[in-house]
Structure formats: C-alpha cells, structure tokens
Design brief:
With 175 residues, this protein is of the alpha+beta class. The chain has helices spanning 4-11, 17-31, 107-125, 167-174, and strands at 36-39, 42-45, 47-50, 72-81, 89-100, 128-129, 133-143, 151-162.
Length: 175
C-alpha cells in the first residue's frame, strides 16, 4: 500500500480529499485481493471503482447494465467539511456494493453481506489507511430492502479524516 503521507510531503502537495479516496480504493483493493464473488458468468474478482461505474466503451448488449461490472464497489466521495481551524478535514464516502446472481438461492445477497462485513471489520480493527487518513465512527451500513434480482446491493457510509490546511500554515508561508 502506498504511503500517501510521505508521497505528498515529497511532492509538496496537500493531503487532499482525492488522495483520501485513492488511498481508500487501494485499501479496499488489497482487502479483497484473491477473493471471488457472484457476477455475470459466474464467480469473479471484485472490482473497485472511483466515484462511479466506468462509461461503457463496447457495443455489448450488457455494456449499459450493472451486470457487466458486477461484482463491484463504487467508492463515491459525497461531501466533507473542515469544522474549524484546529480540526482535520472530514471527508464522507458512500461505498456501494453490488453482486449479480441469477440463481434461485439468492447467493448474491450473501456476497453483498459478506463484502459489507469485511469492510466494517477492516475499518473497525484498523481505521488508519494510506499513512495519513483515518475512518471515524459511527460507521453505518445498509442492505437493500426491495427485490432487484438478479442484482444485489448494499452500502457502507464512512467519514474519514484527512489533514487540512490551517491559518498557521498560511502564516508560516508568509514569514
């Protein structure tokens, strides 16, 4: 996993919300490395996407559906704030989980529940990631309540801290 703290210091850039998102994607990719879940045409590795599903580039009949991408997690940055001069930036994420299963046993639901649980356990036991970011509690999650067979969805909502610029930083630059 990249050490974003040292990378940004070496480059002379701030630890931005986008770097927090990149570090989270890297952490999730590592967490699910080697695991397979229900997707179109059987079990396959989980994909992790930044902000949204990729725009289809093929003329495939399934290119415009979630079936082509499943199983996946979309790491969507949904907001944030800098509460005051002495606090780190807070960045909010929605992690949308999807599995695809045409079977009658609804194994897609079980995959989504397992993926959600792996995420929750990881951020509860090791909330630090990327060398500069921390997941704060509460950690919330939800599973779909309406039938959308053969698609199964869930989500985790995380608030992370990322270092933010303060007035002291600007004052130091001016001196």
């Amino acid at each position: 996993m990249n050490d974003y703290k040292n990378s940004v210091e070496a480059a002379g850039i701030g630890r931005t919300a986008q770097l927090c998102q990149d570090a989270m994607i890297e952490m999730l990719t590592e967490l699910f490395k080697g695991k397979k879940y229900n997707g179109q045409n059987g079990r396959k590795p989980l994909k992790v996407y930044k902000q949204d599903l990729p725009i289809p580039e093929e003329n495939d009949e399934d290119a415009d559906t979630d079936a082509a991408a499943a199983p996946y997690i979309v790491v969507r940055m949904i907001g944030g704030q800098i509460p005051d001069d002495d606090s780190p930036q807070e960045v909010e994420f929605s992690l949308t989980v999807c599995a695809y299963d045409t079977g009658t046993e609804r194994e897609g639901f079980q995959d989504v529940a397992n993926i959600k649980e792996d995420i929750v356990q990881r951020v509860c036991t090791a909330p630090y990631f990327g060398g500069a970011f921390t997941v704060k509690k509460p950690i919330t999650w939800a599973l779909q309540t309406e039938d959308s067979h053969p698609y199964y969805f869930g989500a985790c909502f995380l608030k992370c801290t990322a270092p933010s610029m303060t007035q002291d930083t600007e004052l130091y630059r001016l001196l």
